[in-house]
Amino acid sequence: IPNRAPEILLNARSKTIGVLIPSFRNQIFADVLAGIESVTSAHQYQTLIANYEYDPQREEREVLNLLSYNIDGLILTGKQHSDRMVQYVRASGIPVAELMDYGGQQLDIQVGFDNEKAAWDMTHAFLESGKRAIAFFGSMDDPRDLSRFRGTELALAEHGLKAYHMAPRTISSVALGRQMFLQMQQTRPDIDAIFCTNDDLAVGVLLECQAQGKAVPQAIAIAGFHGLEIGRARLQKIASVITPRYEIGKTASEILIARLTGKDAPD
Hints:
The chain is of the alpha/beta class. The chain has ten helices and ten strands. The protein starts with a helix and ends in a 6-residue tail after the last helix. The N terminus is likely disordered. This is Transcriptional regulator.
């Protein structure tokens, strides 16, 4: 077993990257973590991973905990943080990468995509197929959810339409997707397209449509987000916004470690 203590003492570095994610129960972040560790392990860095369950106050506590381990760099999921957490991170003086979103203010490094534009594009695809009564199913109502809903709203507003919005503020699941569809039917039976903030919800909607004998996409079009295996493995596949989760984690780690080692970061 290699003894890294002399190296750590000499360089005043722990060779550890802290990673903070909102949920261990979501495949999205498993893919991101795989991308991160493909790079950190190749450079003999360890990852220290914490989960905050979408709770801003817990996020603050977990960041403080990670910083107490003298981590060399920090990877965060998302760009919305409390003022206190931002103060903690800035005071640490270490490089920080924010993932899964892009644009606006940034702490340091950002690697992601435009959630609003992605949702705008998918909503336009619905409109071009003739759909007009479009619902947006969110879950946690977190900043990425809200960006996607905003993109949906903007696309519909261009056609003088409004979106039907549901966001139960709970972690998404297939069962939740079915439940939301049943609830929607009670108030908006006219809905002919549903854009879900992730594929778990979309598969739940699809299963309930199949149970009721509704033709998809003829009667109701369904789309998800992230292009997860759960949406592609079924006999009837769902449309989805494909996101490069592994590549996002990989690129963020490459930039972070390049910063730490004084090398040129990848473009």
